[in-house]
Amino acid sequence: MLDFFLYWFMSIKNILILCICFLSGKSIYSQNIPVQVRNSELQFAVTGNYVTSATIQLNPFLNDPLEQYFSQDLKGGYGFGFSVKKKFFWDNFYVGLSTEYIKITDDGLSQYIYNNDTNYLNVRVTESVWMVPVELSAIFDLPPITENLKIFLGGGFGLYFGDRKRKMILFETETINRYPKFNLQVLCGMEYRLAKNVSGIFQVCFRQAQFNIHSKFPADRFTYLGYDYYFVQEYNSKIYFDGLKLSLGLGYNF
Question: Which domains does the chain have, with CATH numbers?
Fold first, then answer.
């Protein structure tokens, strides 16, 4: 957990330095939109999201330590989200509630399956995972850089729901149980006022979103050319959406 927060801190520092340099330079050579900006009491936002990666621990509850830590890395995926944030107590402090739908499908995977005579087949595997979180955040606005631009930092916790499907040969797993999990998340971003009530939003989120899935193939073998090839039928897996989340969207301010 300490490594996670150190990584978050260094990443946020680098992102903020780049944003400040870029936007400060831009403000010198361009005119600001003549909009009277004030901190909004309430904001609704819609965003398009990209998550860079996810990880599946296939059977973390087995006694065999080698099987326990065997994992499958997945490429990134896209989704969309909604959020609302309300000002509380101070002019630069907000409480935010957000949710989203994100899905990753990776069909470039493979697995070896064996028969009793040590023959084997290398078969294609498709992993598909989706997640719907509910996240509560405390958000702080930093002192404004320009009249229309502000940077914010925040963090909190989330409850993460989701599912996993594994397809192999003619079979697909069926979900028996889903187990949502709580975990921490931290974020940073910028908001640029485009009009009196409309803002453009860019946000980066770091989290260890996790949920557990108990799933099962309808069979434990596949017959090919008269040979039975065997594979693991039942999985108690952990799914982590642990990649960086990038969000771009619009907010309406009240």
Answer: 41-253 (2.40.160.20)
Q: Please provide the size of the chain in residues.
A: 254
At 134-189, the pLDDT tens digits run 999 999 999 887 889 999 999 999 999 999 999 999 999 999 999 999 999 999 99
Give me 18's structure tokens: 């780049």
Q: What angle do CA 30, 31, 34 make, to 5 degrees?
A: 155
Task: Name the pTM for this structure.
Answer: 0.83
Give the separation between CA 230 and CA 116, rounded to whole angstroms.
8
Mind listing the pLDDT tens digit for each residue in 61-86? 888 777 777 889 999 999 999 999 99
Contacts of 51 (CB under 8 A, 6+ apart): 76, 77, 78, 79, 102, 104, 241, 243, 244, 245
Radius of gyration of the chain (CA): 23
The burial of 27, by beta-carbon neighbours within 10 Å (0-12 exposed, 13-18 middle, 19 or more buried), is given as middle
Round to whole Å and give the CA distance between 177 and 125. Answer: 22
The residues near 171 (Cβ < 8 Å, ≥ 6 apart) are 217, 218, 219, 222
